[in-house]
Amino acid sequence: MDAPGLGGLNWAVIIIYLLATLGIGVWFTRKASTGTESFFKANGRIPAWAAGFSIYATTLSAITYMSTPEQAFLTDWSYAAGNIAIFAIVPLLVIFYIPFFRKLDVTTAYEYLEERFGPTIRVLGSALFVLFHIGRVAIVIYLPTLAISSVTDISPVLVAAAVGVLSVVYTFLGGIEGVIWSDVVQGIILLVGAAVILAFGIAALDGGLVTVAADAAADDKFISADNWKFGGAAAAIPIVFLGSVFNNLHQYTASQDVVQRYQTTDSPKSTVRSLIVNGILALVTIPLFYGIGTVLYSYYQHAEALPEGFNTSALVPYFAVTALPAGISGLLIAAIFAAAQSTISSSLNSISACVTVDIRDRFFPHKDGQAHTGVGFSRLVIVIVGAISVAVALYLSVTDQAQTWDLFLSITGLFGVPLAGVFALGIFTRRANSAGVLGGLLLGAALAWYVQDVAGLTPFAVSTVAFIGAVIFGYVISLFTGSRNLGDHDVTALTIYGRRATYTRRTSSSPSLAATASAGDSNNTEQGQINE
């Protein structure tokens, strides 16, 4: 297949978009430079609707924009059950998790783990996030690089640079505030782009929606009775839904890129509103992105045929550059860039927060014991991680990796979901201790690997087993090792059983949390309440 050129008008649209995102980063540079509180938390200046848009854009990514239509094109809409799963955990987030994160005033999610289980669990949780998201950023850069370079004459190196390097630059400049407002712009562009694909795809078919519906009904492209059966050829919706609940628990309770947004609004109520906005946008995603796959299934049956041996991961950009008018196809390529960059920038800022707050400020504070206030180190982390991720993405592109949707879900279930089990043990049990949750985390991940590679379960089933395994193993090991918590630090206030109780907070600058809590050093402890 000969790759077509984009043409001057399409290039103009793409360049305008890229310059606009860069401009947002430049605009917020001065505010972001005032200190790490602003660089990572925006001093609570973000309105609820913008934070919700940012959570949506962060969790959507190029994986959703390209692989979700591919999933619907190749199979059906069964994975859409995952979009609904967010509503199953919103009550848990609102009642339990958000009050803990907000009242502790944490910059990273893993600061709670230190309050509850000590520094080892905090550092481990933070390190797992950093390692996973370096890989995730590489995949999110790789997807549009693979897709766009395969259907156009653009060099993969140029695509990776445009997506990755520009994300690094505006994240470097604008901090979390620049990232969030870029997410808002990018979220609007990617939603408009998806709507444009739907409109043009339907208009190009004789019979329009009638033809699409007839093809989908004839070939079981929506939901069929087989989707409710276990062990069949079709994806079982109950397993998709349950696995997505646990994947969402990981993302919304144990993943820094989302949890960080909870601290960027001015109040817990605003944080709740941001989750509602995000949930509504997740519902909108179902007809848009699954609809694209179903419409293109009909389009490439009736209007034209795909080239022989075509990699369906590039389905959306191929349609954009071959079937849409000049300028419009440029908008669609920009939308794919937007979907990738919104995720990349969020991950980069959050990785920087973890390395800065959980490692540098925790173990290498200023001589006076206070955290550093400058953002130079945080920006250096963004540059280094961005460079590594772009390099890995180019490697993936050269090796022509595919099936990235299931790959991404498998990685999430294996490494991320057990960490959500650690947070659940900390908040919902008093008996859980550091030895128990460490054992639960390791055994949960090992069990996830076993059922994935040996038993061959689906990624959603792996996520379910990983979470339940981490919780059960963690709780049982805690029972056998006793209620060991550091010093005489009372953890009751850090569980649901003491949400209104006073807690003694161990600051991250303490050289020895156990010794400090035991001695009751007033210079290294704070009094607070878990109380809305």
Ordered list of secondary-structure elements with their pairings:
Elements: H1 8-27, H2 29-32, H3 36-41, H4 48-74, H5 81-84, H6 86-104, H7 110-117, H8 119-151, H9 156-203, H10 209-218, H11 237-254, H12 256-259, H13 268-302, H14 315-323, H15 328-363, H16 376-399, H17 404-428, H18 434-454, H19 459-481, E1 502-506, H20 513-519, E2 525-529
Antiparallel strand pairs: 1-2
Summarize the structure.
It is found in: Cell membrane. Residues 520-532 have a biased composition (Polar residues). With 532 residues, the chain is mainly α.
Keywords, please?
532 residues; mainly alpha; Sodium/glucose cotransporter; Na/Glc_symporter_sf; Sodium:Solute_Symporter_SSF; ion transport; cell membrane
Apparent shape: globular
Fraction of residues in H or I helices: over 70%
Sheet with most strands: 2 strands, antiparallel
Ends: how far apart? 60 Å
Tally of helical runs: 20
> What's the order of the H and E elements?
HHHHHHHHHHHHHHHHHHHEHE
Question: What does the radius of gyration come to?
Answer: 23 Å
CATH fold-type name of the largest domain: Sodium/glucose cotransporter
- Counted up, domains total 2
Mean pLDDT: 79
CATH H-level superfamily of the largest domain: Sodium/glucose cotransporter
Strand order of the largest sheet: 1-2
Family: Belongs to the sodium:solute symporter (SSF) (TC 2.A.21) family.
InterPro entries: Na/Glc_symporter_sf, Na/solute_symporter, Sodium:Solute_Symporter_SSF
Keywords: Cell membrane, Ion transport, Membrane, Sodium, Sodium transport, Transmembrane, Transmembrane helix, Transport
Membrane topology: Multi-pass membrane protein
